[in-house]
Amino acid sequence: MRVWLIKKMRPLIGFESLLCVAGTLANLWFLWSILSSSRLRRSMRNQLLCNLMIAHLVQTLIVSPVEIAEYIHIINPPWDFDVYCRLEAMENIVGHIHSALTDWIIVFLVGLYCANRLNLNLAAKVGPRLGTMCQVAIHTIPWIIVVTATSVTFSKFVGLGRCQYVPSYQKFLLETFYTIIPSILSVLMLLALCVMVRRQSDIAHTDMRRQADLALSSDRMVAYVAIVGITWVCEIANITTTLQKQIDKVGTGYWMECMINLISGYRALLGLLPLLFLPDILDRVKTWRPWQPQIEPARIDLPATLNV
Fold first, then answer.
1. Which alpha helices (H) appear in the chain, and where do they start and end?
2. What pTM, to 2 d.p., does this model score?
3. CA 257/CA 165 separation, integer angstroms
4. How far apart (Å, rounded) are the C-alpha atoms in residues 274 and 8?
5. Contacts of 61 (CB under 8 A, 6+ apart)
6. Can you tell me where the transmembrane regions are (predicted)?
């Protein structure tokens, strides 16, 4: 029995360890490279990216190590049910927090891109003071709501020992607001943007300058399409099984849950790849070295705005 468990758990431990190490180093590298540049960190887009990387670090520094500890505990007797329940409860709570934060930050990121792509000058409409307050709210309120709602929800349902299991309907509601709704919103915003940009290009077909601007800025959409695409690839199994449980009332089993959690967690690493489609981020990551002094080009930095 123990040999069979080791064979089942060893790949999971290996992939989780890779995510823990590589994901932490990669996110810290991107995060530090942006924050160390006064020019980059003033952009609202880059601030949201930093917020997203901090959410990824929740996965790589908390969720993945807890899952590794849970797997190691299972294959090493004596098996303490109370310890297992503690690890399982922590993994469920923090895992849901990471998933919700990641999905909703991507919604804000895509929404900001759509607003700037359509030339909606949000900063001019709200003013500098209100704009700063909106920035602080966008960065902090999702964390407060998600952490509070998740902790309160799980604290209401206590099962055997210290295990905390949320009933299927309540978990379906959590997954709906945490994953399904933001994932669909991101796709709908990008589709709406494509339709509106197409109409703008049809109206302005005689203006060659406008066409050139649209062609130049359309390259940036690749990054956001890739971000949303990776989100769906990593979350489609979670969304499908959540809907299946609600319809068929049948669980997926422990091994399938482990695989779904692993695939979902790998967004913390794969989600950084689309950022390389952003020219300023790519240039900074390629040239920045923390052990070398960096001299940024002289320029006039404007106050942080809601623009990209």
1. 2-35, 38-41, 44-58, 64-75, 81-117, 122-126, 128-155, 168-175, 181-203, 208-218, 221-248, 254-265, 267-270, 279-287
2. 0.83
3. 14
4. 32
5. 20, 24
6. 12-36, 93-115, 136-157, 177-197, 218-239, 259-278
Predicted confidence (pLDDT) at residue 36 exceeds the cutoff of 70? yes
Distances (CA, A) of 70 to 65, 75, 108: 9, 9, 34
Q: Nearest to residue 224, comparing CAs of 201, 194, 198?
A: 194
In order, the DSSP letters of 79-103 are --HHHHHHHHHHHHHHHHHHHHHHH
* Model confidence pLDDT, tens digit, residues 153-198: 887 765 544 565 677 777 788 888 998 899 999 999 999 998 888 7
Q: What is the mean pLDDT of residues 101-127?
A: 85
Domains and CATH numbers, the chain: 2-287 (1.20.1070.10)
Q: What is the pLDDT of residues 204-262, one digit of tens each?
A: 544 444 444 444 444 478 899 999 999 998 888 777 777 766 666 555 666 777 788 88
Q: How far apart are CA 12 and CA 6, in angstroms?
A: 10
